[in-house]
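Entry 0007
Protein: Interferon-induced transmembrane protein 3
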Amino acid sequence: MNQSSHSILMYPSAGRPAHYEKLQEEHEVAVLGVPHGPAPVTTTVINMPSEISVPDHVVWSLFNTLFMNFCCLGFIAFAYSIKSRDRKMVGDITGAQAFASTAKCLNIWALIFNILLTIGSIVVFIIFSAVIFQAVSQKMKNLEGF
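Output (structure tokens):
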């Protein structure tokens, strides 16, 4: 195989003017053009069902799992959230909504218990601190009396 035939096979536009391909495209457009004749223009409308957004509450469940996981409610809510996400990925919207609703309910209860535990811990700390302070001040008064 000589050099000239090799260049023709490798580069099919070799030897043609540079604007040849552009002219060829313009010719194809001119030949195809717009439809000739009084053909009616019809349109088709396709209604695509919008994807229903089902919140799976995974982040909320993970937060409740990691911080003050009262009676494992956060972990159980996390499991239901993952089940909801799996159902949503499969396309079972009804199942996803059911699992998401259960996860939301468990997250709400976990949050309520977490808030009550936090408030209770603060109250116990304040009362314990007051009792300790009172005991220490009573000891100091007793020591001054000697």
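Curator remark: Confidence is low (pLDDT under 50) at residues 3-11. The helical segments are 3-10, 20-32, 58-66, 73-90, 93-144.
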